[in-house]
Amino acid sequence: MAKLLALTALGLALAFFGERFIAFRQRMNIPHLVHPVEPPSCHIIPGLENGSEDIDILPSGLAFLSTGLNYPGMPSSVPDKPGEIFLMDLNEKEPKAWALPIRNGFDVQSFNPHGISTFIDKDKAVYLYVVNHPQMKSTVEIFRFEGDSLFHLKTITHELLSSVNDIVVLGPEQFYATNDHYFTNHFLAQLELFLDLQWTNVIYYSPGEVKEVANGLSFANGITISPDRKYVYVAAVTSHSIHVMKRHDNWNLTPEKVLHLGTLVDNLSVDPATGDVWAGCHPHGMKLLMYDPADPPGSEVLRIQNILSQKPTVTMVYANNGSVLQGSTVAAVYNQKVLVGTLFHRTLYCDL
């Protein structure tokens, strides 16, 4: 009887893990063929060979880029080099990127920037909020942009900001942030991903209140807000979807709809002129987890028009099998041009 029970338990365990493995392959988009799509004119931005995981563009056309992310389990082109924030002026005919000095005693050697978001106050001062992972922890760093430098003002930590991926600023020291894992231990985080526990969430932070405002997401990632600030959009990577949530006066979020896109959605941005949502996407997640330069991960960029309607229009604006651009994470638009960033590879600039 004991042997029968042991065999039964083993059989159930194998069946469970077999089902989880098949589901995991589906979540990683295996197989997913990339059909090339390219706008009329694209070129690589020199000096940004270490990735630009997130991009935020000011109304003036100045673009901040988060570069050099070292993320557990993902490839990195320069794992031993600290990250940097680069700046581009997209009003220039041929924009160039340059690294911004960071002042006020900030520990640049442990800088590991992830998601970013800008904020302009009533006095027109510009602030940059940066998700940082020093020693693989999660903090939110606040900088003031002045002249040609970033001045560090404050580091925010909180027990609910445990595995922060991205951020959208709402006001002074006020933001929504996504946690992309429930566990902070690397092994448990990988197990969480394999089992698809859907325990990731969105946190609202302010000096007077910190709370969970959304949960049950599959690898919550990019987050942004509609131009009228009534809706929040959250990317769920492994469910290949964008969650549309309604924002309430108490900053709570309620689900409105889920848009399934058939690709692993990373960071999101919104065109302030049209309200269109732009997404940097990964057509093949396993190629990111098991990087092979001979068979690199591809890139996809989606444009979603009328996302609040019953039938949004989804357009593949850019797609490449990795021969030009690997591991696209973000697409941000300005003046009929799109800037496409990656996890660890190049940065692309295209006319639309």
TrEMBL record:
Cofactor: Ca(2+)
Cofactor binding summary note: Binds 2 calcium ions per subunit.
GO molecular function, one term: arylesterase activity
A GO term from the CC aspect: extracellular region
EC number(s) reported in the record: 3.1.1.2
Catalytic-site annotation from UniProt: 114 (proton acceptor)
Sites where the protein binds Ca(2+) 2: 54
Stored Gene3D superfamilies: TolB, C-terminal domain
Domain of life from the UniProt record: Eukaryota
UniProt xrefs under Pfam families: Arylesterase (PF01731)
GO biological process terms, semicolon-separated: carboxylic acid catabolic process; establishment of localization in cell; lactone catabolic process; negative regulation of superoxide anion generation; regulation of cellular response to drug; renal sodium ion transport; response to toxic substance
Glycosylation positions in this chain: 267, 321
PTM annotation: Glycosylated.
Binding site for Ca(2+) 1: 53, 116, 165-166, 221, 266-267
Disulfide bond sites: 42-350
PANTHER family linked to this entry: PARAOXONASE (PTHR11799), SERUM PARAOXONASE_LACTONASE 3 (PTHR11799:SF14)
Family: Belongs to the paraoxonase family.
Protein name per its UniProtKB record: Paraoxonase
Organism: Vombatus ursinus (Common wombat)
